[in-house]
Amino acid sequence: MGDVVIVGGGVMGCAAAWSLSRHARVTLLEQFGPHHDRGSSHGSSRIFRLAYPDPFYVDLAVRALPLWRDLEQESGQPVLELTGAVDHGPRELIEPIAAALRDAGRPYEILHPAAAAERWPMLRFDEHVLFHPEAGRVHADRATAAFRQLAVNAGADIRHGVRVASVTAVGDARAEVVTDAGEVFTADAVVLAVGGWAPDLVARTVPGLPPLRVTQEQPVHFPATDPLSWPSFLHYRGTDASEPGAYGLGSVDGVKVGFHGVGPQVDPDRRDRTVDPAALDRVVAYAEQWVPGVDTTGAVASTCLYTITPDHDFVLDRHGPVTVLGGFSGHGFKFAPLIGRIAADLVAGRRPSERFALGTR
Ligand SMILES: Cc1cc2nc3c(=O)[nH]c(=O)nc-3n(C[C@H](O)[C@H](O)[C@H](O)COP(=O)(O)OP(=O)(O)OC[C@H]3O[C@@H](n4cnc5c(N)ncnc54)[C@H](O)[C@@H]3O)c2cc1C
Asked: For residues 148 and 14, is the Cβ–Cβ distance under 8 A?
């Protein structure tokens, strides 16, 4: 594979570095420091789950699970803890999830809301409840650091504080990367894993990027008793999208609760990352009603970016020497080690999945 430059040191760029550094000389360029909180990958927790209504994503999560275990084994770091997940909401939204898990041969249970409330008194439940055990949390910062460290151990050169200004293909098998400081890197392949910065850099580099909406989301951590024992949870509120879906999970920082994809559209270079008190109040009100196990007086909000495609499918494709990993639409973290493998496959010339191709949406 020769020389590969990866732009972006969030979880996806680091996972790509982990996979690619086995076969190529990898240089990763990241504009900020190693643990920065201006993108999408920071913090202590992300939900891992197999449960999706779409069998395509169930299959991806099933494939990602052993790769998380590989990462743990290679790094010696515990990263993924399975405490199970409860999904609840209208029957017509829960049943397709059950069907997808059943068709994939994965275990799950359907519970009466009263039985669920007895089992998990820290939560209140809507009309239909599904539990699946192959779910829980990934320690986000630890996972990204483990990918990065293993890449470095395999010879990758990871540089922080380097912002890439442009990437230019030179024919089909060579590309030139120029930094803001005027440094030039040439490589056989470039991987762009720039999260919320994709609408600028990726759109300037390859054709066919779907329209991306970058939003500032605002999850809230609450103190709770024994948060690490909590199942993660997803609450589908109504079938008409009038109420945003809510999610939550335990972490070392307490129990995180948020609404999925409700934040305002932002420019990642210009947002001020200040907490919106009205949005915080809405999460607190939700927790008061549905998450009785948290202490709502101790709410702490933070901000994070979603990069949303029109259909919420990712963009994983290659154009000439440039591979794009993007549009993770607020649900990509759980797949990160698999995305790393897919990046290496794309760089090696394998075809992308049609679902993730450039120019199809
Ligand atoms: C609040 C919140 C909750 C979430 N919860 C879940 C969850 O429970 N489960 C789940 O699976 N997913 C979840 N996600 C989604 C998941 O976190 C993201 O899909 C994932 O982190 C995206 O990683 P990334 O590497 O694409 O982006 P980023 O982490 O943003 O990384 C991109 C990097 O590229 C760098 N960069 C950009 N432009 C340049 C440039 N020109 N030069 C150099 N560097 C550059 C940036 O500085 C950044 O570090 C959540 C996201 C948020 C915001």
From this structure: yes
